[in-house]
Structure formats: structure tokens, C-alpha cells
Amino acid sequence: MAILVGALTSALVLGPILLQLNKSGTIYVPRITFTATDKLVGAEDAVLTLAPGASSALQPFTGEERPRQEGNYRVLQVSKSDKTAVESLKSGEYIVDESGVVTPKGGGAPIGVLKPGEYLVGEDGRVAYRRETNWPAELRAVPTELGREERLEGAQAGDDANTYHVWQKTTTENGPAARYLVNNQGVPVYIVDPGINGVFERRPDGSSVQKFTAPKATLMSYIIKGILSGRLPWGLVLLGVFIAIVLELSGIPSLAFAVGVYLPLSTSSPIFVGGMIRWLVDKYTRRKFAGANMTEEQLVAEGDKSNGVLLSSGYIAGGTLAGVIFAFMNIPLKDKLDQFEKWATAHNPFFEGPWSDVLAMIPFILLTVLLYIVGREMWLSGRRARDPIVRDLK
Fold this sequence. Notes:
Blueprint: H1 2-24, E1 27-29, E2 32-36, H2 37-40, E3 46-50, E4 59-60, E5 74-78, E6 92-96, E7 101-104, E8 112-113, E9 117-121, E10 127-133, E11 146-150, E12 164-169, E13 178-182, E14 188-193, H3 215-229, H4 234-249, H5 254-262, H6 265-288, H7 296-304, H8 307-329, H9 334-347, H10 356-375, H11 383-386, H12 388-393
Parallel strand pairs: 3-6
Antiparallel strand pairs: 1-14, 2-10, 4-5, 5-9, 6-7, 7-8, 9-10, 11-12, 12-13, 13-14
Helix pairs in contact: 4-5, 6-7, 6-10, 8-10
């Protein structure tokens, strides 16, 4: 019965929510996109201006696709460099030379260089956009692979009312593997970047989009594609198999080791802390039942019945549900959440920057202490602590 209820809940409740989240975060990406330079450097108040006299040496921009802000632009071509790429700048004004090197306007040492690419410089000398080509102009769809017809949906539906054919490109030859919308001549017009596991974070108008990740689904898709296409790196797979054999022969659980290698440190560290709490609670359980002549299996069963196990399960389920609820609320409350994020970034030193981890550690420590207290039956012990058998064994 519980399995049936869970399946119905997933199909009737979580399924539509995930579909809505995916639709709300979907971006229809044209072949040429223009990304505002201040978005690339991580500061909306950062102003990058071309060095005086350098604009005359730049060629005028004559491309057919134009950025939304009309004007006459010149092209700054930044080549690949061994210098540090600029990814995060503070608010302020900066000077960019003809090779893309960024220096504070008031003087000082160079901070780094812009990422390689083609930048558009306005008439006022401001480095305004980075022009990005998302697939080659000669890319054409295979007629036999065209699917049903489809229109744009969501926030971009009003920008283009045309109907296109769906083309699922599965190879990376002559363009990225993705879902394309192509016209009747077989020319791709858009890449359909999904809201879940999508790679583009901004629409063509520059507005940001909240993306959602499903790393396990991505990993499984890579494995399935590799097996079906015969392109799976079997050398790495066999290397992992032999490492697992060596670990098992050494008495080390290979599955736990593999999870620790696969998961990032930010995910495995809380798991390690939870394991330490469980170890301490198990030591307490063994001391509590030391005079009961219980077998190892019975002691393990007592540990599995601990209130700490129930609370930790609630942590997992509650965190998942809270994430789904927040993601669903992020659709209608996006503007308010963005305003709060800007306010917190400007006024709260613990929200962003080197001290941001300190703010996150406060609730983590509180949850950890609560888990230990409940596991040790110091609080919320309920009937289990009032059981006369358990009380006598304390």
C-alpha cells in the first residue's frame, strides 16, 4: 500500500511539479548570443572601458545578429592567454587594453585578462558585450531525424510565434549534442536548453534563469550513451573494477570509497560528520546494553531503532521536500528573491564572500548537536526511555 501511495504521489504531484520547473527554466538559445560583460565578471556595477586611443584600431561590427541595445560597435578580439582569466570583479571602473588585460582605472597592477572571444565596444568606449557562437553556421538537420512540430513556450513565447521541427542531435560532430528547433529548410534556429540540467543561465534578453541539477541522471545518461554507442572509456571502467577488487581484498568497503571519490567534498563532509555522530551513539548504545548479553546483530538492531536514525531520516526527507518547495516558489517569487539576494549581498558580510561559509556553519552545527542529543536520548526519548527494561539497563 505504501509503495502504491508513493508511486501515485510521484506521478500525480511531483511529476507535474518537475515538468513545470523544467518548463519555467527552459531557454531557447539562438545561434548567436550576446552576454553583457558585467555578467561575465560577476559584478553588475563593474564598468569596463577600453583604453584611450585603442578604439581606432578596432574593426566595426557588421554582423547580422545585433544585441538588444542598438548602436554602433567595434570588435575587440581577445586571444587565448596564459594570464589569469577575470571571473570576479568588485564594483568599480576598469580599463581594458587592446589585448584584453584588465586594470583598475585609478591605477595599479593588472588584475587579469578577459576570457578569449569577441567583444563589442560601444561608441562611448565601454566593453559592452561578448559575442558567442553556439553552433556553426553550416550545421543542418538530417531530414529523417526530424520529429514533431513545436512552438516556443514560457517567457520567450511572445518573441517568436513560428512553428519549428524538433531535431534531437545525439553527436557532437559539427555542433553540440542537444535538442534543436529547425525551420522547414533544416536550418537550426534554437537550442532548447532545459530547466533541469541545462547549461545556459541567461535568456537572449539578458534575464537570468534559475536552473536545477540532477547529477545522478546526468551520470546515468553518460553511461547509457557510452554503452549504446560503443564509446564508453572501457580502460577507465576496468581500472575502477580493479581498484574495487584491491579495496575489497584490503577489507575496505569499495562502495563507500567510490561514493567518497564521486561526491564533492561539500557533500561528503556532512556525511562524514553524520557517520561520526552515529559512531558515538553506537558506543553509547553498547554501554547501555552492556549487561544484557545481547548479540552483535541485536546491538546493531538497537542502533538502527535509535531516535537519531529517525531524526536523520527526517533531515534527508525534509531537505528534499524543502528544496522542491523552494524551487516551485522560485517561479512566482523570482523578482522578490532576486531583490533579497541583492540586498543581502550588499548589506550582509556573511552572505557572500570569504565569510559566507561561517553563516552556513551555524545551522549545520545546531542540527549536528540536536542529532547527537536525540541519538543519546537526552531529549525526545519518548516511550523508549520510559521502558522499564531500557531504564534498568542504563
